[in-house]
Each structure stands twice: as structure tokens, then as C-alpha cells.
Amino acid sequence: MKKAVILLSGGLDSATVLAIAQQQGYKCFTMSFDYGQRHRAELHASAKLAEAMGVTEHKVINIDLTAIGGSALTDSSIAVPQQHEEGIPITYVPARNTVFLSIALGWAEVLEADAIFVGVNAVDYSGYPDCRPEYIAAFEKMANLATKTGVEGHKLTIETPLIDLSKQAIIEKGISLGVDYSLTVSCYQADNEGRACGECDSCRFRKEGFRQAGITDPTPYQD
């Protein structure tokens, strides 16, 4: 059976990506990161999703991105914005996807996996530079140049099945695959119980996606 490493944050998008990979016949190995993020409830969500969706193995990798800061998600002195920001917002975590994909690449090589799945999106998203198709293409090229398996001809692909989908379309796809979105946490500043703020970019995109899909939003909110 073909194998895939899935970056599973515990959010709506990554849960949908996991379901898609399973539908495509991959044996799924999921990876989450405890990187000092403000929204740590997502780690509990990713563990619940991995168990509920029957993955082969789930890993949590510890890496402290608070050491460099530079983001509202890794520096407690920077507030999460309550209004949409023009340009690249302060919730962008410097080099996060590059770090995560690189570690996933290492595990994929050990597993002799065929693909890494990541839930980046270039439609309903906050404008992060490491969610763009050209970034993913560049990383895939690097991955096959930088690994023993790549040099020996076992090409790895970086799969981004959500990259051109609206949040509405992502939710509709996930529902069709049986994803339980009540297990997911998307909020940038969810409390310890996983309740969302309802105001950050991630919450706004999520709420609007459920509204457009005509599906009841299962998200617990703080107020």
C-alpha cells in the first residue's frame, strides 16, 4: 500500500486533507507540532482526529518557535488581530511551513512514503507566502534533490488537494467523506477547552464557510 505523511494541525483543513488521503488509498501517518503556539488546544484536537480517523501512527514533534518569535501565534506580547489586515498579517509564523515540511520530509524518507499531504490553501486564507502554489512546487523540487530516496529515483510528491478550494468547498468535501468537524479546532486563540474566539481571521473564514455551505457550524465559541 502507498504511504503518506499528513501534516495534521487539528484544524478543519488538515482534517479534510487526511480524509482525502485515506480516500485515495494511502496508508496515513500523521504529524503535529508543539511549537509554542498560542492555540495549543489544536494539539488535543489532532490527537482526537488521528484516533477517530484510524491513522497508522501519529507523532507530535516538539520545536520551540517562541525562541525566534515574530508572530502573534508565538509571541504572547503580540495581540492576535480582531480585524482583517492588509498584506501579510502578524499571525504569519516565520518559516513555519518550511520547518514543518522539512521534518515531515525526514519522516517520509524513513517510511519510504510516496507523498506528504498538507492543507495549504490559496483562496480563503490569510495571505501567508508559504501557502502559495509556487512555494509548494519549489519545496517539492528541493525535496527530491535533497534526499537519498529522491536521488535513487523514488520521487516524493507534495500533495495540496485544498489549494484551489474555497472554505465552503472544503467543508462540503469533508462532509461527503464523513469528517467530524466538531473534533477540529481552527481558532488562533482558542481556550484550553478548544472554544473559539469567533473574531480572528481563522474563525471568520470558518464561520463563513459553514454559512455558505448551509451546514450547522459545530464550533464551540467562548461567548
From TrEMBL:
Cofactor binding note of this UniProt entry: Binds 1 zinc ion per subunit.
Binding site for Zn(2+): 187, 197, 200, 203
Gene Ontology MF terms: ATP binding; ligase activity, forming carbon-nitrogen bonds; zinc ion binding
CDD domains named among the record's database cross-references: QueC-like
EC code(s) of this entry: 6.3.4.20
Membrane-spanning ranges: none
Keywords: ATP-binding, Ligase, Metal-binding, Nucleotide-binding, Queuosine biosynthesis, Zinc
A biological process from GO: tRNA queuosine(34) biosynthetic process
Protein residues bound to ATP: 8-18
Cofactor: Zn(2+)
The protein's annotated pathway: Purine metabolism; 7-cyano-7-deazaguanine biosynthesis
Catalytic activities: 7-carboxy-7-carbaguanine + NH4(+) + 2 ATP = 7-cyano-7-carbaguanine + 2 AMP + 2 diphosphate + 2 H(+)
Family designation: Belongs to the QueC family.
NCBIfam families assigned: 7-cyano-7-deazaguanine synthase QueC
UniProt function note: Catalyzes the ATP-dependent conversion of 7-carboxy-7-deazaguanine (CDG) to 7-cyano-7-deazaguanine (preQ(0)).
Protein name according to UniProt: 7-cyano-7-deazaguanine synthase
Species whose genome carries this gene: Methylophaga aminisulfidivorans MP
Lineage, top ranks: Bacteria, Pseudomonadati, Pseudomonadota, Gammaproteobacteria, Thiotrichales
